[in-house]
Specification:
Its cofactor is pyrroloquinoline quinone; Ca(2+). The chain has 729 residues and is α+β, with helices and mostly antiparallel strands. Helix content is 12%, strand content 28%.
């Protein structure tokens, strides 16, 4: 509801006047970071966006046409280009470039900046080959840029229906693109897989990847391409979907294989033996298939060319509450797992389940790294993985066997893992009437990529905690709206209600030794939700931060060596590459994602921007613009008796997930409604029904809310602000 921009701190204990809205706060207070449904204003183009380029289409076509398996493997040895989302097939994000190093990084300067003309989250790492950069922006707008000068070559807007942004949980984001044999591949938010001509941006083909348009499937992850196959998964476990991953022919877009992550209706034939085996770990009395079961593989997909396996990280259960989807318990395969598939056929090879019977939104979709390391002096081919549940895993990638796991943050749901690789759970984590799991549903590590430097032997990991306190939903009905059910009007199915949290949030950068499973050094940040990492042979680690900085650290000890402001919070990871024998580092910044919709740690709201640095760079930063908010809302007429019911509607319509609690905090990249003008809330019906902000992500609530509901929402918004307004002396 409403406009974009502005953070919501966790609710403070404000005053005596709060008692009249406490019941509504029960569902609201802890969910400022969850299920964001999704609006925001695109900021207008500014004068410093550049046009024109010296890059010729025939040159681009010739060079991008070389990008295939041989090219990527050859580039891995030198790291001159950045042709895939994680730099190499192993997704190490380790560059062998060392022109920029600990001795001279202080001389880094800006070479150019490029305005992505967006106000939503920027989560993608740019791809660069032969000085041509490809960057995805919110709503899957693709930009091709001359990396020498920062000039636009072309851009492509797939025309995602922005009024349907509410169908996803966590902002209108894209985590990247793929390049292969002259094509750029993007997976659009609305489920389309699209191939573009890398030289011109012309659309070559598109295919609909969705098996069901009734439930809210979306795509936010980056496609991966190998051996002529484009592989992509979907998101939407909170909205009633059944997860699956699919491979498509890179030339035609025709489907080649598909593997589901959880079983379907057991009264129907199973797709394969892996689904038959999985069904034995679910209780059919919960009729999990009605709500899909979840397991959406929304981010991590990694390819091992030597073993010809593709590794897929699977998502959380739908609903989260296992007692609702599988009443008698069970591991609920293949939720919260790493699954190995045959890259040619998509057939199941092995799995390792990191969170059996997920109950806390502990996805295993976080980026994984393939590495060859020595364990007890024996060389092992491993997967390094730090999923949401707070444990760092080392898994044998040849067979899925558990090697080790150690918590990298404090956890309270398990004491560790036994020799067989099963968690030693604390009973209260599942059975308590109210429980604040640590880490919370946003995870000890989310989608922000980590990196692995084989020279130091360390993984550089963005770690965090975002508090959430949960109670089981007592009258859950699958796919049905109910007062106070978070996002119920928009298809949300969680199975929990939310209570004010007690633990404190944090964000930090960890250097982790995966062999000895221990922390080597850390850097504390002012907020959760910091960016992914890049590490280099120059003994450096680069990371953007929630409070609007891009920082270089000594990879050996964490000493800060250099930083530059970014004008907004930075959540994506950087890339580095060589052009004309000069090393560049580029990062795309733009505040957003689940936490970023309602929280912020900087005063600036600059549009999504690519910053590119090199030694001796002297370009000027763009002007930074501060968040502008009204004073606390006042003057909207309301009936106090409507406040409680208005709060329940505010939760059911997912307003809280976008705007936070009115007047509590400052908002994130979407404005807190306690700081809008009285005119907007007085005319709320004109915003909710066929309103002016639909093309910026605002849902249309026609047929979902009534005229009477509007008055109750107005009462809750203004009444809440009045309750927390400081009293004049």
């Amino acid at each position: 509801m409403g406009r974009s921009n502005t953070e919501c701190q966790w609710p403070e204990k404000k005053s005596r006047n709060r008692s009249r809205i406490q019941i509504a706060f029960r569902e609201i207070s802890a969910v400022l970071v969850l299920f964001p449904a999704l609006l925001g204003l695109s900021l207008p183009s500014s004068a410093w966006a550049q046009t024109g380029t010296d890059a010729k289409p025939d040159r681009i076509k010739a060079n991008i046409s070389r990008v295939d398996r041989d090219f990527i493997e050859a580039n891995t040895k030198r790291s001159r280009d950045w042709p895939t989302v994680g730099l190499d097939y192993a997704e190490t994000r380790f560059s062998k470039l060392n022109q920029i190093n600990t001795d001279n990084v202080r001389d880094l300067g800006l070479v150019w900046s490029y305005n992505l003309e967006s106000s939503r989250g920027i989560e993608a790492t740019p791809l660069v080959v032969d000085g041509i950069m490809y960057q995805s922006a919110p709503w899957n707008v693709v930009h091709a840029i001359d990396a020498r000068t920062g000039t636009k070559i072309w851009s492509f807007d797939p025309g995602v229906d922005r009024s349907k942004t509410y169908r996803g949980c966590c902002d209108a984001v894209s985590r990247g693109l793929a390049l292969y044999k002259g094509k750029v591949f993007e997976a659009a938010y609305d489920g389309r897989l699209i191939a573009l001509d890398a030289a011109t941006g012309a659309k070559l083909w598109e295919t609909d990847t969705l098996i069901d348009h009734d439930h809210s499937y979306t795509i936010t992850g980056a496609p991966r391409v190998f051996n002529g196959k484009v592989v992509i998964g979907q998101s939407g476990a909170e909205y009633g979907v059944r997860g699956y991953v699919t491979a498509y022919d890179s030339e035609t877009g025709h489907q080649l294989w598909r593997w589901f992550t959880v079983p379907g209706d057991p009264s129907k034939p199973f797709e394969d033996a892996s689904m038959e085996a999985a069904a034995k770990t679910w209780d059919p009395s919960g009729k999990y298939w009605i709500n899909g079961g979840g397991g959406a593989p929304w981010d991590s997909i990694t390819f091992d060319p030597d073993l010809n396996m593709v590794y897929v990280g699977t998502g959380n259960g739908g609903p989260w509450n296992r007692k609702l989807r599988s009443p008698s318990g069970g591991d609920n395969l293949y939720l919260g797992s790493i699954v190995a598939l045959n890259a040619d056929t998509g057939r199941y090879v092995w799995h390792y389940q990191e969170t059996p019977g997920d109950n806390w939104d502990y996805t295993s979709t976080q980026p994984m790294i393939l590495a060859d390391i020595k364990i007890d002096n024996v060389p092992r081919k491993v997967i390094l993985h730090a999923p949401k549940n707070g444990f760092f895993f080392v898994i044998d990638r040849t067979n899925g066997k558990f090697i080790s796991a150690k918590n990298f943050v404090d956890v309270n749901w398990a004491t560790g893992y036994d020799a067989n690789g099963r968690p030693i759970e604390l009973p209260a984590a599942r059975d308590a009437d109210q429980y604040e799991s640590i880490p919370g549903p946003d995870g000890a590590h989310n989608w922000q990529p980590m990196s692995f430097n084989p020279l130091t032997g360390l993984v550089y990991l963005p770690a965090q905690h975002i508090p959430v306190n949960l109670s089981p939903e007592k009258s859950f009905v699958q796919n049905a709206a109910a007062p106070g059910k978070l996002g119920g009007l928009l298809g949300g199915n969680i199975g929990f209600v939310f209570n004010p949290p007690k633990s404190a949030p944090f964000g930090r950068l960890l250097a982790w030794d995966p062999v000895h499973q221990k922390e080597v050094w850390r850097v504390e940040h002012v907020s959760p939700w910091n960016g992914g990492t890049l590490t280099t042979a120059g003994n450096l680690v680069f990371q953007g931060t929630a409070d609007g900085r891009f920082v270089a650290y000594d990879a050996a000890n964490g000493t800060k060596l250099w930083e530059m402001p970014t004008g907004t919070g930075a959540v994506a990871a950087a890339a580095t590459y060589m052009v004309d024998d000069r090393q560049y580092i580029s990062i795309a910044v733009g505040w957003g994602g689940s936490y970023g919709l309602t929280h912020r740690a900087t005063e600036y709201q600059n549009p999504g921007t690519i910053y590119t640095y090199a030694l001796g760079g002297t370009a000027k930063l763009p002007a930074f613009v501060k968040y502008q908010t009204e004073g606390l809302l006042q003057g909207v007429k309301y009936d106090p008796k409507d406040i409680r019911e208005g709060g329940e509607i505010y939760v059911a319509a997912a307003c809280v997930a976008c705007h936070g609690v009115p007047g509590v905090g400052r908002g994130g990249n979407i404005i807190n409604l306690g700081y809008v003008s009285a005119e907007e809330i007085t005319n709320l019906r004109h915003i909710l029904f066929h309103g002016p902000f639909r093309d910026q992500g605002m849902p249309d609530f026609s047929g979902k809310l009534t005229e009477g509901d509007v008055g109750k929402l107005q009462a809750f918004i203004q009444g809440t602000v009045d309750a927390i307004r400081p009293k004049s002396r």
